[in-house]
TrEMBL record:
Keywords: Cell membrane, Cell projection, Cilium, Cilium biogenesis/degradation, Membrane, Transmembrane, Transmembrane helix. This is TMM17 protein. The gene is Tmem17_1. InterPro entries: Uncharacterised_TM-17 (IPR019184). Part of the tectonic-like complex (also named B9 complex). GO terms for biological process: non-motile cilium assembly. The keyword Iron-sulfur does not apply. It is a multi-pass membrane protein. Pfam families: Transmemb_17. It is found in: Cell projection, Cilium membrane. Belongs to the TMEM17 family. The chain crosses the membrane at residues 13-32, 44-65, 77-96, 108-128. GO terms for cellular component: ciliary membrane; ciliary transition zone.
Length: 155
């Protein structure tokens, strides 16, 4: 009975849980300060991004914890997809779009958050790969044992 969950992924999730409120407070405070000087479409985009990231991050971290600790492939796959598709591109958009008038503190917290997300994408991929291979092997062995039990005995 091999443990399939990933300790580095779990440590990253643990620190991400504590970093996310800090990131959120810094980002909202700086958004409040620079809101009057932003153009209308950037105001709309940033408010939408903050709502989307806040909701997605809560779901993503929950799926990561459940998928990794309980070794559940669907939850971990959902975590991986939510990390890869909405979260990482959004953070990279916030980090590299100069039209947003990025503050240095804001850039620093975005870099740390992007590092968390990048590490989690890679770690979750390899953990998922190991879990799927192990579960497929267990399934094949179980099917083999069922066939052996159903096979008629000699004579």
């Amino acid at each position: 009975c091999e443990i399939l969950s990933s300790l580095p992924l779990q440590m990253s999730l643990y620190f991400n849980v504590y970093f996310f409120p800090f990131w959120w407070l810094i980002t909202v405070a700086i958004l409040y300060l620079k809101y009057p000087v932003l153009s209308d479409y950037y105001k709309f985009i940033l408010v939408t991004i903050m709502i989307l990231v806040s909701l997605t991050e809560l779901i993503r971290l929950y799926l990561g914890y459940v998928g990794n600790l309980l070794e559940k492939v669907p939850e971990l796959a959902g975590f991986w997809l939510l990390t890869l598709l909405p979260q990482l591109p959004i953070i990279l958009f916030l980090l590299f779009n100069e039209g947003l008038k990025i503050h240095s503190l804001e850039r620093a917290v975005h870099i740390v958050f992007a590092a968390f997300l990048s590490f989690q994408v890679v770690a979750a991929f390899f953990t998922l790969k190991r879990m799927v291979n192990t579960l497929a092997t267990r399934f094949r062995l179980t099917e083999f044992h069922h066939l052996e039990e159903q096979r008629p005995g000699p004579g």
